[in-house]
């Protein structure tokens, strides 16, 4: 009886932890302080910010591009902005967030005329640069470039439960809690089923 209850408790604990880890969540992030490439000065208040929604579907501690449903950067959702036109591009090329650690992504836009003579776009590569560009048959210009530096500050927070990351017990803790409850229930049942013994004097 005890063994069955303990196994059931372990299974319930495992399912609860798996459900908590795979629940969709939204994170907000920001980078503050960049090197202004054009003026070659450190713009300490310049900010790149955004949010993303997704879950760690395979429970490997990393959220990949295929595990997010929204990626907003400076007000544009780079997952929902695809136009379907061969001459206009808007999207996210890569995305990776290690839970509680580093965020890496590359996103942007690009457009050109049908002949490919004129075009331009916008690119953000986390940890490297943000810039706009224009192409003509005779030139390639880059503008509004900001570069990441060692002084760029990164912050991220989970928006679940009103902005506070919920405290989800570790798998081992779930197993201990549920096994303990199962054992207590088993003891209570066993005592209930045993006949009362007369007091010995």
From TrEMBL:
A Pfam family assignment: PEP-CTERM
Name of the protein: PEPxxWA-CTERM sorting domain-containing protein
InterPro entries the UniProt entry points to: EF_Hand_1_Ca_BS (IPR018247), Ice-binding_C (IPR013424)
Superkingdom assignment: Bacteria
Keywords of this entry: Signal
Record has Isomerase as a keyword: no
Keyword Signal: yes
Residue ranges annotated for the Ice-binding protein C-terminal domain, each copy included: 167-192
Species the sequence originates in: Pseudoduganella chitinolytica
Signal peptide annotation: 1-23
């Amino acid at each position: 009886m005890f063994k069955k209850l303990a196994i059931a408790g372990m299974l319930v604990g495992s399912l609860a932890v798996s459900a908590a880890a795979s629940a969709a969540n939204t994170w907000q992030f920001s980078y503050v302080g960049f090197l202004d490439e054009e003026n070659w000065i450190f713009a300490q208040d310049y900010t790149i910010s955004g949010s993303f929604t997704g879950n760690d579907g395979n429970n490997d501690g990393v959220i990949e591009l295929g595990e997010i449903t929204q990626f907003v950067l400076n007000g544009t959702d780079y997952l929902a902005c695809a136009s379907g036109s061969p001459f206009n591009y808007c999207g996210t090329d890569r995305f990776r967030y290690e839970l509680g650690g580093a965020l890496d992504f590359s996103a942007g836009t690009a457009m050109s005329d049908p002949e490919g003579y004129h075009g331009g776009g916008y690119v953000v590569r986390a940890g490297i640069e943000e810039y706009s560009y224009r192409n003509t048959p005779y030139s390639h210009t880059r503008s509004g470039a900001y570069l990441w530096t060692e002084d760029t500050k990164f912050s991220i927070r989970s928006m679940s439960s009103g902005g506070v990351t919920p405290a989800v017990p570790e798998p081992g803790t779930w197993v201990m809690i549920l096994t303990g409850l199962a054992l207590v229930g088993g003891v209570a049942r066993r005592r209930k089923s045993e006949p009362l013994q007369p007091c010995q004097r």
